[in-house]
Design goal:
Rossmann fold
């Protein structure tokens, strides 16, 4: 990945952080995006730079298209290009460790989750794809979820709907961008040990563990290594796929 520039959204912690470190370890320069975790984003940049890679933090809310446009413009000025886009940012609100059922959910909460998780992926793809088309090379990986593939009792309807929407977005973008040698794919992680999982009630997590044939939760690094392959020159023919990373929880 030497010479490639990767934008990772929601990179300050969890899967996003692991992806940024994985891509940097293989030579990529990293544009670190986050919004709520500004301090952590700058700390990640320092960590990557200490390893010898270029990195910059871009504090932007991807649910706001004007902020995405500004971020993309600034990355292009700083790095000259964007070769890899990892649409990772996602939120999944909980209330005392539990989700709100559809008949209890505030419309404002629904709208916020859709705006961040799904609209954010659209905005980033919409404004970065033209840069990739110019170069006739690009890799886009959308971080969906097991909850976008099957019913999950853990997240709310807004999260599941947004992650299912990302899979539809992946298929359309894969078909439309493949002629330009831009490979678009998705990953669908199951239960991964992140801060998001820690916000879920303990008894819910334990019940989830009993449904995983492998008998353990995944780690962010497990997802990052798959994404690294999909985003690299090694991937020449995987297009429009969704890779399940769930310890066998949903063997389709």
């Amino acid at each position: 990945m030497k010479g490639r520039v990767a934008l990772v959204t929601g990179a300050a912690r969890g899967i996003g952080r692991a992806v940024a470190l994985e891509l940097a370890a293989h030579g990529a320069d990293i544009a670190v995006n986050d919004y709520a975790l500004e301090k952590e984003a700058y700390e990640l940049v320092k960590h990557i730079e200490a390893q010898g890679n270029r990195a910059r933090a871009y504090i932007a809310d991807v649910s706001r298209k004007e902020q995405v446009l500004e971020m993309v413009s600034n990355i292009k000025k700083e790095f000259g290009r964007i070769d890899i886009l990892i649409n990772n940012v996602g939120i999944s609100p909980k209330h005392n460790g539990l989700k709100k059922l559809i008949y209890e959910m505030d419309p404002e909460e629904w709208e916020k989750v859709i705006q961040v998780n799904l609209n954010g992926a659209f905005y980033c793809t919409r404004y970065i794809a033209p840069l990739m088309i110019e170069k006739r090379w690009g890799r886009i990986v959308n971080v969906s979820s097991l909850a976008g593939r099957i019913y999950s009792p853990v997240p709310g309807a807004h999260y599941s709907a947004s992650k299912a929407g990302m899979l539809g977005l992946t298929r359309v973008c894969a078909a439309e961008l493949a002629p330009f040698n831009i490979l678009v794919n998705a990953v669908a992680p199951g239960r991964i040990e992140t801060a998001m999982m820690s916000e879920v009630a303990g008894e819910v997590n334990q019940e989830s563990l009993r449904t995983i044939p492998l008998g353990k939760f995944g780690r962010p690094e497990d997802v990052a290594k798959v994404i690294r392959f999909l985003a690299s020159d090694e991937n020449r023919y995987v297009v429009g796929a969704t890779i399940d990373i769930n310890g066998g929880r949903a063997i389709l």
